[in-house]
From TrEMBL:
Residues 303-317 form the Glucose-methanol-choline oxidoreductase N-terminal domain. The keyword Chaperone does not apply. Transmembrane segments: none annotated. Pfam families: GMC_oxred_C, GMC_oxred_N. FAD binds at residues 131, 251, 515-516, 544, 555-556. Disulfide bonds join 449-507. It comes from Oryza meyeriana var. granulata. Belongs to the GMC oxidoreductase family. Residues 1-22 form the signal peptide. InterPro entries: FAD/NAD-bd_sf, GMC_Oxidoreductase-Related, GMC_OxRdtase, GMC_OxRdtase_N, GMC_OxRtase_C. One of its GO terms (molecular function) is oxidoreductase activity, acting on CH-OH group of donors. This is Glucose-methanol-choline oxidoreductase N-terminal domain-containing protein.
Length: 568
């Protein structure tokens, strides 16, 4: 397999961030979304106001959660989102803007960009959403339900979740009626489908949103016109007058008050403190207090970085760690920030020999029913190179883009078993906490990566993929034209089919993220089976931070379902 130079390597998505994406098509004249009537800039909110429910984080879980709580029979709900609205960022609207959205990501805490970059202590670049709708507003749009066994293993010990599967399915269906669409499978996605089947990832299951072994086409959150639908669209189901969505509202701490011993009741051990509201900051740096009405709840849906970070900033976490940072301890909950996971991604990117259309993830391979083998996914991009790589000459000005098509096939390690932790480096809530995921540190995960990359190689070796190989000369012996893949970045070892050590080295040297990190407030360790934070009354966490393992090929369907489920 031929490889492209390192200079080209740094220009391609899934390899490094120096690429500049094409301007997506606009949607001039489109009416504002139905939920826009609930949205207000945090600077326009009152200095103090009371609500029945305060939801922190207007993302994948927070939007369906707030919409349902503010529905028929619900209460008065405040949803606080640190970022802006999706309509402020044109690239978010279409699949073609996916690359541009990632290129817009900015690490600066004060930035208005819809995504914030961070690098884990493992040295792997990553991204967290900073926009209403959360990850559903910036991701690749793939939608698929959880592995059925996931519901039987979510939680620990006495706190293993007792899911009502009738309500689970009804909650999925509620989301799907608004956000899930059947994609048109063609081009690279069609070729990958054929390659997976030839590599024995069988049977072909057609289009389905269920997690089933074999090869399938999942749903997409881009509709037939190519327009993105996100969790923010679910806010339209709130009852008018019951929901307020404050954007550019950064929650700095949860207000925690002691409980009168005479009034303590319920769980054992009985909480000694209770949440009574939150303090949040607007874009003008003004402080606001949102307070709970009697019987109300604060619900964190700020994601696997934001939710544990806010608990720690509020004095809920390992007492010794909080004390060392000068944070007064409200509740000693040792596992806050522990059990952090991120599913390793490895893959091969190719510049194909023929034109290919842009496609995000649509077709996936699920090699085994028990979830012990890596999932396989693919995407294709038409992107302009960074200016330093544009060709010089009389017909190529510095402003003329040079486009390149890149196709990728990747494997995602399920679980994973390797885990790390999150901790505060600053008391500034605008800054991302430090996190280490310890990718592939468990031998079981490394073995799955080796098996997964071997499966990727078999897909690339399938006859379906021959058309994407490029001519590289002829053999002196046969005088027949040789055709090889033009690989972007590291190529697989030549003895990939037999050398586990070399393939393991490849996995460790090329590991990246698929942005499916989870944990930090794991069920059974930080929250109980009803997602209530241990030792604190009136405080719950409902998002992917409660997961110990990823729920199938992509988590967004299950996280949105959970937001609906937990508020029903």
């Amino acid at each position: 397999m031929a490889t492209i130079s390192t200079l080209l390597l740094v220009t391609v998505l899934f390899v490094a961030p120096t690429l500049v994406a094409a301007q997506p098509r606009g949607f001039g004249g489109v009416a504002p979304p139905a939920y826009a009537r609930y949205v207000v800039d945090a600077a326009e909110t009152a200095a103090e106001e009371a609500y029945d429910y305060i939801v922190v984080g207007g993302g994948t879980a927070g939007c369906p959660l707030a919409a349902t709580l503010a529905g028929p029979g619900g209460g008065r709900v405040l949803l606080l989102e640190r970022g802006g609205a999706p309509a402020e960022f044109l690239p978010l609207a279409t699949a073609g803007g996916f690359v541009r959205t990632l290129a817009m990501a900015d690490p600066a805490p004060e930035s208005d960009a819809p995504a914030q970059t961070f690098t884990s202590e493992d040295g792997v670049p990553n991204v967290r959403a900073r926009v209403l709708g959360g990850a559903t507003s910036i991701n690749a749009g793939f939608y698929s339900r959880a592995h059925p066994d996931w519901f039987r293993g979510h939680g620990e010990g006495a706190e293993v979740m007792n899911w009502d599967m009738r309500l689970v399915n009804a909650s999925y269906e509620w989301v799907e009626r608004e956000l899930a669409f059947q994609p048109v499978v063609r081009g690279w996605q069609s070729a990958v489908r054929a390659g997976l089947l030839e590599a024995n990832v069988t049977p072909w299951n057609g289009f389905t949103m269920d997690h089933v072994p074999g090869t399938k086409a999942g749903a997409t959150t881009f509709d037939a016109s190519g327009r993105r639908r996100s969790a923010a669209d679910l806010l339209a189901f709130a009852r008018p007058g019951r929901l307020r969505v404050a954007i550019r509202a950064t929650v700095t701490r949860i207000i925690i008050n002691p409980i009168d011993p005479a009034a303590r009741r319920g769980r054992s051990p009985q909480p000694a403190v209770a949440a009574s509201g939150v303090v949040y900051q607007d874009r003008l740096l003004q402080q606001h207090h949102a307070l709970l009405r009697p019987g109300g709840e604060v619900i964190l849906s700020a994601g696997s970085l934001g939710s544990p970070q806010l608990l720690l900033l509020s004095g809920i976490g390992p007492a010794s760690d909080l004390t060392s940072l000068g944070i007064p301890v409200s509740a000693d909950v040792p596992d806050v920030g522990k059990h952090m996971f991120d599913n390793p991604r490895n893959g091969i990117s190719i510049i194909p020999s023929i034109p290919i259309d842009h496609s995000l993830i649509q077709v996936v391979g699920i090699p085994s029913a028990n979830g012990n083998e890596s999932y396989l996914e693919a995407a294709s991009y038409i992107v302009p190179l960074a200016p330093i790589l544009r060709r010089a000459g009389p017909f190529n000005s510095p402003f003329s883009p040079l486009y390149v098509t890149v196709v990728t096939i990747m494997e995602k390690v399920p679980g994973p078993l390797s885990e790390g932790s999150l901790w505060l480096t600053s008391s500034n809530p605008l800054e991302s906490p430090a996190v280490r995921f310890n990718y592939l540190s468990r031998p079981e995960d490394l073995a799955r990566c080796v098996m997964g990359m071997r499966r990727v190689a078999k897909v690339l070796e399938s006859t379906t993929m021959d058309v994407f190989r490029s001519a590289v000369g002829s053999s002196s012996q046969s005088r027949r034209e040789r055709r090889e893949f033009r690989i972007v970045g590291a190529a697989l070892p030549v003895d990939w089919s037999t050398n586990d050590t070399a393939l393991g080295d490849f996995c460790q040297q090329t590991v990246a993220t698929l942005w499916h990190y989870h944990g930090g407030c794991v069920a059974g360790s930080v929250v109980d089976r009803d997602f209530r934070v241990f030792r604190v009354r009136a405080l719950r966490v409902v998002d992917g931070s409660t997961f110990r393992e990823t729920p199938g090929t992509n988590p967004q369907a299950t996280i949105m379902m959970m937001g609906r489920y937990e508020s029903e």
